[in-house]
Amino acid sequence: MAALDADTWAALRGAFPSALPIDADPSGPVVPVDLHVAVARFLKESLGFTMYVTVVASHWPQADGSDRFEVATVLRRPSNPSVTAAWRLQIGPEAEVPTLFPLFAGADWQEREQFDLVGVRFTGHPDLRRLMMPEDWEGHPLRKSYAIDTPHPPWR
Amino acid sequence: MAVDESGRPYAHPLYDTLDHFPGLSLATTSLDRLLSWSATNSLWIFPMATSCCAIEFMTSAANRVDIDQMGAVIRPTPRHCDVMVVAGTITVKMAPRVKKLWEQMPEPKWCIAMGSCAISGDFYRDIYSVIPGIDTVVPVDVYIPGCPPNADQVLVGLKRLQEKVELHRRGLVPARDGRPEHDKMIDPAIGRVTDADRDASTTEQQLAASRDLGLGGNSRRASDTPSSRQGGVDEEAT
Amino acid sequence: MGSSTSHGAAPPPPAPTRDVRPLRMRVNPFLDIDQYDPEADLMALNMGPQHPSTHGVFRIKLFIDGEVVVKAVPYPGYLHRGVEKLCEKLTFAQLVPIVDKHDYVAPMTNEQAIVRVVEEALKIEVPRRARVLRTILAELQRIASHLLWLGTFTLDIGGTIGGGASVMMYTFRERELILDLFEMLTGARFHYNTHTPGGNRHDVPVGWPERVKKVCDVIAARLPEYTAACTDNDVFDLRSRGVGVIDAATALELGLSGPNLRASGVDHDLRRDAPYHAYDEVGVNVAVATDGDCWARYIVRMAEMEESLRIVRLLIDDIPQGPITALKPVKLHTQIKVPAGQHYAAIDTPRGELGTYLIGGGAEKGAAAFRLKIRPPSLHAMAALPWILPGNTVSDVVAILGSLDPIMGEVDR
Domain with A94 in it: what CATH number? Predict the structure, then answer.
């Protein structure tokens, strides 16, 4: 499934002509970080993508030892037929992206979960705490550098 | 006289008091038997129900497999209960709570580990957030294997616990379960509904139909040469 | 507690004013507790993580003023089993039995969600026989899941002594019939492991369709019993009507989906709007209610059970002949490889939109996922709690929590 259908891509390209590439990436377009909120607002208010689906952060360790992160956001238009819109942000080791909480209250726990498990900070989130792991947990389990069987004495 | 797992008698003040009165030994023996009988057949269960096994544990309390027939009552508070049934995966975040709830239960108390996650962690065993078996946190008396165990197997496990409780009260320590021998497999307490009205010819037809599908397993096992059956050579790879 | 006041003279306590405002005009759940009414005599009440009404291990901290909730802080994560990390280590054929354990009330739909994203990524055309069979299984699973929801929900608001347990006994009686069907097909009561990328593992056994029809008749005959026990019950009415109201815009913004969203008046169902399996052949009548309260969520789920029965009866008579898997039987579990690329696919489970976001090109040249994110519908339902609980009484907390139908294995994964 393409991440953006042709109509949505055309409308998005028309709204942000200089910032977006000409051809749509089948995995979803890479959007500059400073346009993240603007793209979400445009999709929600102009194109009717009112339903928050998910945010996926992933850790891409580089060959030189530095960290890269990618954050993909998915929205859905609850119409018939229903389509999704996904776009990606690529960020460096500072691992900070602006939050979508002011637009979508459903982003609250999803962003907290990604902060907990991957370690991407969502600036502006009102309550950025760990969601899944205990508060005193060390490390972010879904980073590639985190061993799956990390011990946690005295419990395991 | 009741003993615990290591054969050490419980230091109950009642027994010391009764020993001071001559002629009461006959009465205390009868009383002890009555207490054993009532303790065995009125085990109250505290469900430490976390995940999938909890649903199957609910099924064991529902109408088809009725856990009430064993005299067991499910009470969701630790202070009333004798048996803790750990049904489901226990995580690092949950384990301190399990320990705390276990300590809140009054003596004597027993623990049943239900399902492979509670027994060993199952395939979550090596994951950072899951503890490898509940017996690293609390002592376990009976293990009920399965993922999840069928509801009638919960009754079998509870029956095993009742035997253990009764032996403990008589001062004996029960032998450990070995692997069940083929002809001595434990019968489920209640027959499955599907078994009764299932025609034997249906099973035959199903087996024949699955052989006709040619999906690897059966046909390959029936027709292949012994060398390839042992998994030495893959036809496509050669 | 006021236990010393005389019985006759005490006026009836005023009914709590329930919050029905749109989301952004509600009480901000992130305020510090000192910023609420300083005159109020607040008490912190901790509920869970081991509580019979939280549907699993879920902790919620309630700040209450008398009986009324002022602020609610949920703490999930007590069942976080690190499945997404495990999914990066396992191959796609090995994933199916793992994801069974997420939503352990509806394992069939979990498997379908995960194999669907692999099929989308690899552009596998699933044979029609498998698609029809998957539709039947999904709808039977929906009935079983809603039955279990109804049993536990009435248990929540009625209590074991108050009559809720009798409805639970009825619903488990019918649920067992469906589990027997699944056992006949796959050999397991749940955790079936019957779907695989490209098709199904277990073909329809002899005599199975007749048995499905018999079970459908039994359940259709018994659904009116629930109407008699719940819809016509005054206590059920009082405990659920007007409790936990979520309006349509709030539900969308919070990301609610499935019956919870449709109970708020949004006519959205992935089975009809983005059809998968064989749903485009049958056509789905989507049940929608407008009130957005616990009652509406109950009505929607009851209507969905009727609709599921209709779909099953429509399809069970002529399951098409033909192969049941598109791929050849996988001999090596590393044979299925997903190249680099990002894919999202979702299906409508009994709890809502269960999506899977897959980044391909992981270990073993793509035989494992690089990153796999599961979008659980129950997580969004639980995230709605801080917004809708304030203003309700403590007893309504249990009703609202139960009506959202959360499964903690899915929230925490």
Answer: 3.30.460.80
